[in-house]
Amino acid sequence: MRPVHHHPGFTITELLATLILLVMFFSAAGELFRSTILLSWGSQEFSNRGSQIDSALFQLRRDVWNSAQIAATNPRSVDLSSPDGTKTAWRIDLGSLTRTDARGQTERWASVGNDWSFSTDGVSLTISDTAPAPTRLPSQVLLTEKGTSMILERGHS
Amino acid sequence: MVTAIFLMSFTVMTLTVLMATIAAQSRRAQILGQDAQLRQLLTAGAAFAEAQLQSNSSGRFSVPLPEALRQLDADLTVEIQTPSDEKATADVQAALPHHRLSQRLSFSRQASGWRITDATLD
Questions:
Q1: ipTM of the predicted structure?
Q2: Does the pLDDT of residue B64 top 70, yes or no?
Q3: How many CB atoms lie within 10 A of CB B116?
Q4: Where are the domains of chain B?
Q5: Which residue of chain B has the CA closest to A33?
Q6: Which of A129, A132, B73, B76 is deepest in the core (most CB within 10 A)?
Q7: From CA A117, how far away is CA A152, in angstroms rounded?
Q8: CATH entry 1.10.490 includes domain B2-121
Q9: Pick from A25, A29, A65: which is nearest to B119 by CB?
Q10: pTM recorded for the entire structure
Q11: Which domain holds residue A66?
């Protein structure tokens, strides 16, 4: 009688279970890869956008700081006049923030200020956007003049 | 095995990017907060400079600060120069540890007293 040889093998259930595990594993790997790339890109975009906003705000703050008059003609534009009469205009249009100085030179920050709106209380420029608290940029000239007026009024009374 | 190593690398990379972004934003928020504090000090320095000018004082002054700011090692100095009877400048410097801001103010004398004519934030 010839001996019967049993070849070692896997049952169909084991193969199916392995296949399911592999599919789950590679699916998770794909998601992880996608998340890594998206996070890396998003982080860079976020950082670039933050830098652009900081740069625009730095310049706007300097202009407002030396303003003797702040005229927010509408929520999308503001005209700033320095004590020597030099005018600087800031506009939000076509998805970008634009600064035009007295010599007509223009500086543009793309994709900044889309959701901004300007308003003024006479001594500062207020920028409202989706943030819970607005950003307030004061004029040092107007604040100091206001202080002087108060001192003078106190002196006269 | 190779796939597992790749997966672990991706995880480490994701966590690193996430931590770096959080750290950078935290640092940025801290700097913005200090900037706001320094600008308030500059405004106080401007008021101080103007008060000194109205009483015809000039020279270098260290402005006394509230206890809360002294505990933060904040410092505010004002240097007033009057090159002529009609014009004056004041250099105001506000400092916190590792961070400082300054401005130059110009004043002109008018009938009602000294009036500010320029404020340049450095």
A1: 0.82
A2: yes
A3: 26
A4: 2-121
A5: B10
A6: B76
A7: 35
A8: no
A9: A65
A10: 0.80
A11: 51-156
